[in-house]
Design goal:
This protein is of the alpha/beta class and 475 residues long. The protein has two domains: 7-246 and 450-470, 3-Layer(aba) Sandwich (Aldehyde Dehydrogenase, Chain A, domain 1), CATH 3.40.605; 251-439, Aldehyde Dehydrogenase, Chain A, domain 2, CATH 3.40.309.10. Helices cover 41% and strands 21% of the residues. α3 crosses α4 (96-120), α3 (81-92) packs antiparallel against α6 (177-189) and α7 (203-212) crosses α8 (225-236). The longest helix is centred in the N-terminal third of the chain and has 25 residues, at 96-120. It is globular. The protein starts with 6 loop residues before the first strand and ends in a 5-residue tail after the last strand. It comes from Aureimonas flava. Residues 13-468 form the Aldehyde dehydrogenase domain. Its EC number is 1.2.1.3. InterPro entries: Ald_DH/histidinol_DH, Ald_DH_C, Ald_DH_CS_CYS, Ald_DH_N, Aldehyde_DH_dom.
């Protein structure tokens, strides 16, 4: 990529204010295959200034003008979908078919849904003599993670464009190539100068400078709860809006009436998707106590069936995790689970046989996990499943909610009324009943330490709008 050592600011590719570089590592090989420039506060200042200059004109564009712009962006994005899939696969280790069909394609889905949302969204509402108006919040700072790069970039950029906001994006420095490619796509689509800006860098340098910047009106952050706290604290002095989608430790409740073979197998697949690197992964499987051992045997078979390998290998179902840091964290938590007395029924420490290089984790299942164990409480972010037991629906509801997180929960039952009743008790932003198809129109976000605000469709658009009441507007 010809612009890897530059930033995209004010409609141009520009050099960083100070020379600093970071290698980009292929997690399948542990080798650097590219370098990016690392920015700092001066680069953020330049990008924010461009966004502020662009805001007055862009905020006054019509719905039709923004729709035309977003449709051009969608067309260009779709034309470069294979490139995007290749970039994501290489930078974060997603198997090639998965990178194309899910990782890259999800950006298409979000942008298309936001176009549909904008077509009918009500920005003005009369209430007697008062007019209630929804207006763009201003300049938005965006910090996105490495695990679903285009999902999170598009979940922020699409509603910002629909609202009439201008923006500065800092993609993850661990998986930055997809973000750079997206900037090329924005340029090719003809976004006005200063509407979209990109500065690469790490959290302490660029992320903190964005959060503290008085010229940024809103921070939209997706990542760990730990980093989200830092963004919120840095943003507090300027009273800017902070929108966060953070960590999770999602429960998957299998009620006694399920087909256990199907429910457990799908639960393992859901947990291990994207190499377990999804904030809403169903990592805590709750099964009736009298069927715990049976569930453990099924889960072990399902885990052992996964083919682990390099992202570009044809048969690979489970690629590497993203980095040495992530690999070491997962290994430490697997060892902690064993030390605290959980029963290992599949996988375990170390790499799978035959894979001596790359950040590959053995698909791992623990049985006899108790709620106090570390692996039942901490977000592992790898292909590691914990199986816990329960005696009653009352107990399992309490156990599922006994976490600082509240992003998602999963319920499996052959009785939809029973599942709905239990869903009403879940303290999570999303509840998924019987492994449904993904829905780009469902609000996405969490309770408690999983964040605040929502993404997707009109729920995401609302986050980028201010509400103005004009009283005495007229009858």
């Amino acid at each position: 990529m010809s612009h890897a050592l530059q930033f995209y600011i004010d409609g141009e590719w520009v050099d960083p204010a100070a020379p600093a570089r970071l290698p980009v590592i292929d997690p399948s090989t542990e080798e650097a295959y590219a370098e990016i420039a690392l920015g700092g506060a001066a680069d953020v200042d330049r990008a924010v200034a461009a966004a502020r200059r662009a805001f007055p004109a862009f905020s006054r564009t019509t719905r039709a003008e923004r729709l035309a712009l977003m449709r051009r962006l969608l067309a260009v994005y779709e034309s470069r979908l294979p490139e995007m899939a290749e970039a994501i696969s290489r930078e974060m280790g997603a198997p090639r078919p998965f990178a194309l069909a899910s990782q890259a394609a999800i950006g298409t889905a979000h942008l298309a849904r936001m176009i549909e949302t904008l077509e009918s969204f009500e920005f003005e509402q009369r209430r007697g003599a008062t007019m209630v108006v929804r207006e763009p919040i201003g300049v938005v700072g965006m910090i996105t993670p490495w695990n679903w790069p285009m999902n999170q970039i598009m979940c922020k950029v699409a509603p910002a464009l629909a609202a009439g906001c201008t923006m500065v994006l800092k993609p993850s420095e661990i998986a930055p190539m997809s973000g750079l490619l997206f900037a090329e796509i924005c340029h090719e689509a003809g976004l006005p100068k200063g509407v979209f800006n990109l500065v690469n860098g790490d959290g302490p340098s660029v992320g903190d400078a964005m959060s503290r910047h008085p010229g940024i009106d809103m921070m939209s952050f997706t990542g760990s709860t730990r980093a989200g706290i830092l963004v919120a604290k840095s943003s507090a002095d300027t009273i800017k809006r902070v929108h966060q989608e953070l960590g999770g430790k999602s429960a998957n409740i299998l009620l006694p009436d399920v087909d256990l073979e199907t429910a457990v197998t799908k639960g393992v697949q859901g947990c291990f998707g994207n190499s377990g690197q999804s904030c809403n992964a169903p990592t805590r499987m709750f099964v009736p106590a009298d069927r715990h051992d049976e569930a453990a045997r099924i889960a072990a078979r399902a885990a052992d069936a996964f083919k682990v390998g390099p992202a570009d290998a044809e048969a690979t179902q489970l690629g590497p995790v993203v980095s040495q840091v992530q690999y070491d964290k997962i290994q430490g938590l697997i060892e902690t689970g064993m030390r605290e007395g959980a029963r290992l029924v599949a996988g375990g420490p170390g790499r799978p046989d035959g894979l001596n290089r790359g950040y590959f984790v053995r698909p791992t299942v623990f049985a006899d996990v108790t709620p106090d164990m570390t692996i039942a409480r901490e977000e592992i972010f790898g292909p590691v499943l914990s199986i816990l037991s329960y005696e009653s629906e009352e107990e399992v509801a309490e156990l599922a909610n006994d976490t600082v997180y509240g992003l998602a929960s999963y319920i499996q039952s052959s009785d939809i009324d029973r599942a709905r009743a239990l869903a009403a008790r879940m303290r999570t932003g999303n509840v998924y009943i019987n492994y449904p198809a993904w829905d780009a129109g469902a609000p996405f976000g969490g309770y408690k330490q999983s964040g605040n605000g929502r993404e997707y469709a009109e729920f995401g658009l609302d986050e980028f709008l201010e509400i103005k009441g004009i009283v005495g507007y007229g009858a």
